[in-house]
């Protein structure tokens, strides 16, 4: 231990300075990434009245999936001359408080997810009662009409799970490990249960719960399960970052299980390209965020409502080796 | 434990009890980590019997890996607790360090090692600020580091979002220096057909170093003295402020080390990660015999505490149990370990 902490910091800084000056990387990094042109979606700018729209989701902080939704919402807001107020909280009571905040600040429209109808519906109905148009998306597919949503953008998780299950059966999977990154989330459970339905008698599905906030715990959890049960020939994760960890787990458990996943991010797209991950179920989160804001703008400026009272499905679509090249450049910009 | 009192010989002339001899067994059980060792053996045997895959060497290696990621941090956290302070920011500080290294080297397209060193400076600075505020203001470290916990949590998310326009750090695996850094922080090797992650070796090494510091060096004496009673320690000339700041910086150093492992193992870091792990570190230290009041504990104990957590974490998967029970079992087993720990220590102290 150094005698003076102040001196320790000084020495550390001195050590770094020359390195920073001299040690640039010739490969990778931002310089390499800046080669391509702009990939942001831009489509003119509306000259309609400036509206304020609040988007309130149940996103956990730092989740790459929700970041794509936000990118979509921001793109629509920029195009529609809308001020977007984005907020999120995974705790339903706090999310309800955020919705109340939006109502009290008299926003022009609310776009909201509803992972827990019992807790959130009453608050969403208050928005409607206060004369604020509401669009719902991503979660709450079973209840959005009762909660007072005008339209709904998302995928039915059970249908998406079933579609994934069917594709897994077609890929000859006999024992699918469904990896849930959080406990007690209805939409994650619905996916896994849908997978079992889609597999039918072709195979079985087991669930594995891991702590999604700790990469090492996810890695060792999946490794442990693959070691414990050698019959597992397919690992299906419910979020892109976990699929990437699952590829490491499969190799350290000496398992031949193939990796599949729900949802995407930039790194996952490169894993599909390289063949490390077979395919991803894509619910097009960018589209959900974009349409949620854009549909409210259409309602505010032209009285339009989309969907005719039924759910507008944004998925499931599949990204695999056949179409990954087309998606890759959008993924790099954080939009797919 | 009570054999000494049953001796039929005539009682010797009363000696000062402070210099009296304890039996070897009593001395063994009076060690801080005794209860944790007993608990670890029970839990190991438990899962060994009910979960066949747990018996494989490779499974145990996986368990040791997850243990080491907790244990690396539990070691300095235990020293800090012996020194009488808490660090609730330790979990997110790991993520802060990893994000710092990744974003710095990516944004400026530098050699990966530059980011590693910048992150080291940041982590030491975080530790220094924690320690400096605690020492200068006398505010309990629980509150100071709670503030730091929320600040870092917010900074991780906000800065990552601002700099990259995404919430995860970019993939830096193509940068120069990534390969060599990965070898240092996240490689693995094979022993007798079993794949062992290098963090296990680092963890054991740091536990040995920490134990040596605590038991064989002057700084170790200072740590115990500062945690036992800061005013008394100051009165006999121990540099209390420096010791405490140094301990916070040791936590910062290890947060950096653990963060570098996470970064080079997984290439990208999600900015919301690490929350909740600070409690795992504290639990490991407490199960391992550290007192919440300071002045008592050991580095080996914290290592055993981390091992208990790791074994339960993995054992439940190997046993194939319904995972909804996981946190309940973790809590129950940890509480049991603490009770056992306390009971054995009291018996041992009573048997003197």
How would you sum up this structure, described in words?
The complex is a heterodimer of chains A (336) and B (352). With 336 residues, chain A is an alpha/beta fold. Chain A is 48% helix and 16% strand. Chain A contains 13 helices and twelve strands. In chain A, strands 2-1-3-4-5-11 form a six-stranded parallel β-sheet, sandwiched between helices. In chain A, α11 packs antiparallel against α13. Chain B has one domain (32-350): ABC transporter involved in vitamin B12 uptake, BtuC (Orthogonal Bundle), CATH 1.10.3470. Chain B is built from 14 helices and two strands; from the N terminus they run αααααααββααααααα. In chain B, strands 1-2 form a two-stranded antiparallel ribbon. Mean pLDDT of chain B is 87; it is low at 1-5. Classes of the chains: A alpha/beta (336), B mainly alpha (352).
Strand order within the widest beta sheet of chain B: 1-2
What is the CATH architecture descriptor of chain B?
Orthogonal Bundle
Number of domains of chain B: 1
Total strands of chain B: the figure is 2
Low-confidence stretches of chain B: 1-5
* Mean pLDDT rating of chain B: 87
Radius of gyration of chain B: 22 Å
**CATH T-level fold name of the largest domain in chain A:** Rossmann fold
One letter per element, helices H and strands E, the order of chain B comes to HHHHHHHEEHHHHHHH
Supply Rg of chain A. 22 Å
The biggest chain-chain interface is: A-B, 62 and 77 residues
Could you tell me the strand content of chain A as a percent range?
15-25%
Number of strands of chain A: 12
Helix content of chain B: 55-70%
**Helix count, DSSP H or I runs of 4 or more residues of chain B:** 14
The span between the termini of chain A is 48 Å
